[in-house]
């Protein structure tokens, strides 16, 4: 069995945007949502800017008990899943519960709650030996990442395959790729899939400070994220979530669903090289791209837009540019490329799903979002990165890619179903 899989619903929570419409408005306008960190005093840290989500759990329909029980990242996922199901118009009660599944990605899981609980138990770090006198009854949930997809499963009534995917910064692509595989092989009919991360905490900020991966443009937060720009000096940490409804193509057509795109191909590779380092030739990402294009039966000349990982670190942007040239050949120079991280920052494991959402909206509007803050050329990054201003452009096929610590390289091809042969 090799069924064709389509995306029929999405829910997004990203910096500067409470939903998919506001998210697209921000991207298409080329506005940035990065700012000085407000969640805690960032002054002791090397990097003091982030992409924060203005999120009110009560306004989002979460009860006080849910808020107390669920980490912030889980709250994002549940809210985005509800939105995705509503957006799809699907009646999940018409499906056998064991044919509905969940695939959720995250890089750092319940980092927000774990740090908060550590501060309580250690009396803000004063006590090296901590007792259980003030232990939260929900600490187990925070310690076990699988509780996150379980909460989504309870929300949507899924009793089929439920999985947590944690592959660092490719988690948001890999979780959706896993969902596609389950539908294609016949293990599920409907999958609720995506990713969530809320890593804006002192310990996560300090970790990226230590390896100098994040930007030091603290005096100019709005322009701190500069993918492919010659003055870039690191990424801007962010939080966010995006969740989708995926189903088999013919079933979606039978119910008259609005189809955002078909997931034509997905592939992932690992460079087996270095925890944080990348080879300059981009070979592993190029291999993932070629495999995804092959599955989708799409050649390089048919790719209308590349939604880049574009983190804003020198090694990533050059590695990725090389991968596009290797995998697409001369067409790499003729294909628009952009990074939405320039506007919403890098939400670690969530960002792959957030970028899928951006890609779907680009297809819906036939507009390529820009790479904001791109002012200074880097001779090693010489493709068409759509600087600063969105561009009207026929967008029927999108390649979206991700790169993560550990050497993970993932690629997904999104295509209009009528542009593919059976």
Task: Characterize the structure shown.
With 422 residues, the protein is an alpha/beta fold. It has a single domain (5-110, 145-419), classed as Peroxisomal Thiolase, Chain A, domain 1. It has 13 helices and 14 strands. The chain has helices at residues 20-29, 64-69, 72-88, 111-121, 139-143, 147-156, 171-185, 202-210, 249-254, 283-296, 314-328, 341-344, 351-365, and strands at residues 5-13, 35-36, 49-50, 100-105, 162-165, 190-197, 240-248, 261-270, 305-307, 337-338, 367-368, 391-392, 397-404, 408-415.
Helices and strands, with pairings:
Elements: E1 5-13, H1 20-29, E2 35-36, E3 49-50, H2 64-69, H3 72-88, E4 100-105, H4 111-121, H5 139-143, H6 147-156, E5 162-165, H7 171-185, E6 190-197, H8 202-210, E7 240-248, H9 249-254, E8 261-270, H10 283-296, E9 305-307, H11 314-328, E10 337-338, H12 341-344, H13 351-365, E11 367-368, E12 391-392, E13 397-404, E14 408-415
Parallel strand pairs: 4-5, 4-6, 9-10, 9-13
Antiparallel strand pairs: 1-7, 1-8, 2-3, 6-7, 8-14, 11-12, 13-14
Helix pairs in contact: 1-13, 3-6, 7-13, 10-11
């Amino acid at each position: 069995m090799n069924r064709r899989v389509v995306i029929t619903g999405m829910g997004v929570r990203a910096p500067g945007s409470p939903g998919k419409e506001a998210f697209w408005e921000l991207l298409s306008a080329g506005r940035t949502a990065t700012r000085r960190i407000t969640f805690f005093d960032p002054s002791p840290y090397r990097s003091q800017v982030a992409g924060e989500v203005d999120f009110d759990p009560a306004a989002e329909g979460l009860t006080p008990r849910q808020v107390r029980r669920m980490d912030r990242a889980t709250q994002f996922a549940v809210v985005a899943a509800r939105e995705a199901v509503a957006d799809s118009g699907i009646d999940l009660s018409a499906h056998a519960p064991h044919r509905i599944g969940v695939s959720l990605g995250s890089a750092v899981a319940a980092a927000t709650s774990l740090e908060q609980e550590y501060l309580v138990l250690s009396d803000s770090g004063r006590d090296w030996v901590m007792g259980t006198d003030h232990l939260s009854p929900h600490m187990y949930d925070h310690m076990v990442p699988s509780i996150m997809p379980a909460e989504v499963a309870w929300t949507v009534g899924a009793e089929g395959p439920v999985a947590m995917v944690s592959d660092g910064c490719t988690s948001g692509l890999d979780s959706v790729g896993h969902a596609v595989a389950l539908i294609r092989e016949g293990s599920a009919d409907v999958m609720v899939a995506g990713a969530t991360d809320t890593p804006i905490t002192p310990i996560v900020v300090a970790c990226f400070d230590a390896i100098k991966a994040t930007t030091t443009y603290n005096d100019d937060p709005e322009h701190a994220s500069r993918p492919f720009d010659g003055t870039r000096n690191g990424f801007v940490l962010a939080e966010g979530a995006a969740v989708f409804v995926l189903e088999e193509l013919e079933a979606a057509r039978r119910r008259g669903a609005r189809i955002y795109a078909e997931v034509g191909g997905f592939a992932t590779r690992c460079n087996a090289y270095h925890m944080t380092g990348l080879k300059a030739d981009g070979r592993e990402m190029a291999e993932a791209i070629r495999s995804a294009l092959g599955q989708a039966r799409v050649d390089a000349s048919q790719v209308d837009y590349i939604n880049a990982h574009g983190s804003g670190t020198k090694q990533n942007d050059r590695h990725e540019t090389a991968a596009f040239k290797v995998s697409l050949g001369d067409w790499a120079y003729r294909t628009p490329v952009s990074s939405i991280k320039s506007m919403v920052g890098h939400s670690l494991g969530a960002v792959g799903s957030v970028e899928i959402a951006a890609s779907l909206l680009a297809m819906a509007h036939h507009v390529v979002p820009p790479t904001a803050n791109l002012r200074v050329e880097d001779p090693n990054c010489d493709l068409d990165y759509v600087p600063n201003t969105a561009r009207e452009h026929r967008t029927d096929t999108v390649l979206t890619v991700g790169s993560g610590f550990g050497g993970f390289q993932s690629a997904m091809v999104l295509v209009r179903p009528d542009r593919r042969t059976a």
